[in-house]
Amino acid sequence: MLALVLTIWLCCSLSSTGVLAAASTPSPSPLTSKSVTLSVINLSPTTPAISATPQPLTFTLSLTNNTGSALTQLTLAVRRDVPTTQQAALQDNFDNPAKPSSSAIVMHSMELAPLPAHATRIQTYVGTASTLDDGSSDICLCATGIYPIDFTVSAAASSDGPTTAVGTAQSYVPSFLQPPTPMKVSWVWPLIDRPHRVTAEQVFFDDDLGVSVAPGGRLFRSLSVLEGIQSFTRATLMVDPELISELLTMSDHYEVIRPAPASQPTTAPASGAHPAASTTVDGTHSEDAANWLARFHTVAAASQVEFTPDADPDTEAMVRANLHWSTTVDPSVAGQATGVGTHDLAWPADGVATAAGIKSLISGGARALVLSDSVLPALSDAVYPPSSVAQLDQSLPDGTKAHAVVTDSVVQSLAATAVSVSTPSTVNTSALPKLVAAVAMRAVAQPTAAPYLVITAPRDVNPSVAAAVRAIHETSATYWSTPVTVNDAVSTLTPDQRASLTSPGDGSSVSATMIHTSATTSSFVRDFATIFVSATDAAQVLAGYPAAAQRAASNGWRGHDASALTFNTTLTRQVETLQSAVRIVRPTTGSYTLASSDAPLFVSVLNTLAYPVRVKVAITTVGMVRGVTTDDTGVHVIQGDGSQVTLRIPAHAQRPGRFVVEASLLTPLGAGLGDPIELDVRSTALGGVGVIITVIAGVVLALALLLRLIRRLRRGRKTPSEPPAPLHA
User: pTM, whole model, 2 decimals?
Assistant: First the structure.
């Protein structure tokens, strides 16, 4: 009996424990269409050959389980949907992939292994494609168009549970029944970097450029892309002459600033070299720079080379600030491009330019511009995507119209992803099928018209060499496309009509702070140059500052805020230090006393430059308080090498009292040199009113004395009166 009771008790205990355990285990959430992230990350080939024989078509997919439970009974279903021949419809599919239509053709499916919770798997799906609709291939490419390929993953939360669709994806395959007349495609590839120097040619404020041109660096890989495409295309290169100049300097000998400790103040010397409290070390990438230049020389010979203005400035922002830029290319830089580099093609930041900006670029030598369709859109009633070549309203110096090559915003976004590394160790190839489809759509829409499209890599492209070479090849060197340089396209193709020039935003890419620095530095150079007796002396002292002003406006500062701050701070300090090289010396007491109404003030001027200068001195009361004025003494020549001259400035006191005046040093043309200094002036001289009062008082006193004297004289002239008669008794 006891054994029976114990058995019943044990069974009940185990049963209740199981119930509690079951109750404490949460049931898995129901599966949804978002339980798995499914994406097509590669397609090879992106354009199948026109063939009646089935050809392999390999899709690479990524599956990520977004749930906390393992998924089982996974099945991958694939359908080929109805082809599209309209650009707008294709873009809609890119933005919002549609569900398979009722006309979609079922391709073979795949059973997949279970997918653990939060796991990611790369899955390959190999189909076949041909032009025959006889069942011999998975995909019948039976029409000219862009075929959407739809992928759907179904799964269950348990081995015996119901399955449901948990993820979808879509890819795109161009198809041509007959080879079209190849469309023309230009790739513009930038070799541009941010500035690394301030004013001194051989002193760099960091060694980041050396890292970039060393094996594996960004610019090293950019050049590798150009080397990789030489066998099938001739690209259009946009090259910053400042980059080539920096590398020429580095290939010989250069120094890199080692920042001073935070506890030490930093001041820049008047020569424009590195800050005095910092030290420099020899750069370590001279060999890397020389090797890069040798490779560039070879690549340039097989490319159309176009130079940006030095440091690739934000021309739109400079136009708004009424600033000018130089397009002169140093012969040593042009020689690296085998002498073929020109300024015929201009590329404003983001392809955005106003009418004023276009006019300024043409004045600088540009005959064509790379613009975005955001500023030169297609006509609202356009049936087909327009050719990239367009005619501008602005005229060239010879009277002919300037041209533009216009990018497509959708293609640009896809191209930026397709050619770049997505992380330091991975490449995002998912954009390539979309990019190829977006470009091929032009050949689909106009198979006999040979349309033209220009594509630019991002200005600061960080390329994957293999991905970029493949993207350029599969968009510009296929049976439906052929490569062409921008220069050849502009000179041979008929422009398409587009809508009027618009201006979305200001088109600026550089901060207002950097543009302000560019403006103030330009003004400083213009004004400071006038103080030198010799123009040669001015050029010697100010060498590097005009270039620094243009560097301050560089497009390269985008995304490099810390470097921009370093450049801006260093340049500002150097300008301030150079300005203070010629200055008024503050007197020991800082005060003067004027003992008369016309007495001189003595101002000492120090010139620490190595060259004589011409300056003027102006003295004004603070707050425009009347009381003291000074004469204009004209221009004074101050010798160099630490010469100090005391100037006699005639001053005129209008009343007694204490005044605060500002003594300013000016250029011969009247521009200020540095900050004025304040001086105390005490006047003990009588002013005009005091003089008048004194004179009147003197006159009154004189009159009073004269009147008194007259009265005395009158009294002295009177006859004495007779004495009174004696009194008789």
Answer: 0.85
